[in-house]
């Protein structure tokens, strides 16, 4: 940042100007969220330089399915430590399965699969049954330990997908999620759901989730071989409508993990450019509309991430000092 | 002894359980902080903390006194803030927000009704949109508001939900104006006049989505902050307006929509931790009564039933 030829005053002016420009970027990100009709929380981080930009970076947010990322990291730390065999086969019976729209959650018959394949299903298609089976294999205490060891002080995973499912039905006073969706616009229903209150469900902050992704990309969240497997899963995630939609460039790789609950739409991931630039981004949104399908709220996750990444990719402003 | 200052030190150390961090938080050095705690312990005649070289812990009496100390400090803060408000002449006033589209008669009736119920409280009524009301409520700049739904109501309490069907305002000479009601799809091709999105983005987005869903995708939307501006656009034949039934005006005709596909929903909203409970509840009763009696609103027993077809990408924990 500082050149030997640069005077202190000039350096200060330079920082001031750079900050001013970042402020402009943050305003544009805020405007994008406003146009999409959501409250947005974002943090983006240059994986290699540590340069960052954020909006409400340290506010607690509902993780929803993003809780599967600390779970994944915990699983691979166990594998690296020799505590779990990634090829060990697990049998998932239909009657113990967590509900969900994809993967094993949607299947009717008994399934046998290895732990690492469950991990793959959990990340690539957000398979809840696979996630809960993996959760049972590692345990909540181990996830707590991972989060603590990685220094993520505002992050807390409080339970499985099935716990969340049961809490939503109980809080909503409904028999199934279909009924919950139908009654979501009734006064008081949304406010009663603990699953949507960051202080009463699995939570983190945009800054910490961006840091976690950066640690996976820097081989710091686990040994390099395990981090490489995690990166492969994130790169295979199928959803095109959120983070990925913001980077319609064939030569850019977008890897990520979404999180979805009524009114909550999230994605955390890493965007990699062919010049080697790589940026961890965490975007969390909350909509006042109880609508299940809200394309503009999905798309703004990509748009806001692109604005943030463009701000980080812009060369730092050169300071022209007096006499130069 | 300045008991309040000493209690502040006690609470800071009790919360940090670390003299260095507590001193930093209080913006003072560590030695005078330790001295204050010792002085407080002498004054009260009990030890508040067990100190060892490695850690600081609250004693049993310390734990008991902590809640009391916090309460005293909260009350001291309250005295200061009440004094501030009294100095600014705000004490006694209830700050309430309503949307800009209420008619003069409704505003006057609301003020009169509130005066009757709460003669000792001055009503500071402000004309602001829902989005700004939500912000002002969160910042403590507003005590109560009449907001349009859906909006972000986390940490807010809501009064009874009221609803009002939205109809269409047409030039009286329009061929559609001869029918008793209009299908939304019949409006196809006409520009629309609507309240500004920035005032209440949730209802705006919901209303436009419902228009498209029912076959009316307006080529352009003209945002009208004042209802009279919308009437002007309709009179000139530039647009149709979607609005609850307005007072009768010459040259324009308001018609209901077939099947009541659009509904505006409002309720009073205030902060869960509001300090003006009594006045807020009187305002809510007054506003609810006046909006029903004079603004064509009716209480909604519950939200209209919704049909939601699940899709994988928006499914549970996708």
UniProtKB/TrEMBL annotation, chain A:
Residues 1-21 are annotated as: Disordered. Residues 42-285 form the Beta-lactamase class A catalytic domain. One of its GO terms (molecular function) is beta-lactamase activity. It holds the Pfam family Beta-lactamase2. One of its GO terms (biological process) is beta-lactam antibiotic catabolic process. InterPro entries: Beta-lactam/transpept-like, Beta-lactam_cat, Beta-lactam_class-A. Keywords: Hydrolase. This is Serine hydrolase. It comes from Actinomadura rubrobrunea.
From TrEMBL, chain B:
InterPro entries: LysR_HTH_N, LysR_subst-bd, WH-like_DNA-bd_sf, WH_DNA-bd_sf. SUPFAM superfamilies: Periplasmic binding protein-like II, Winged helix' DNA-binding domain. It comes from the Bacteria. The keyword Glycoprotein does not apply. PROSITE patterns: HTH_LYSR. GO terms for cellular component: protein-DNA complex. One of its GO terms (molecular function) is DNA binding. Belongs to the LysR transcriptional regulatory family. PANTHER family: HCA OPERON TRANSCRIPTIONAL ACTIVATOR HCAR, TRANSCRIPTIONAL DUAL REGULATOR HCAR-RELATED. Keywords: DNA-binding, Transcription, Transcription regulation. This is LysR family transcriptional regulator. Residues 1-59 form the HTH lysR-type domain.
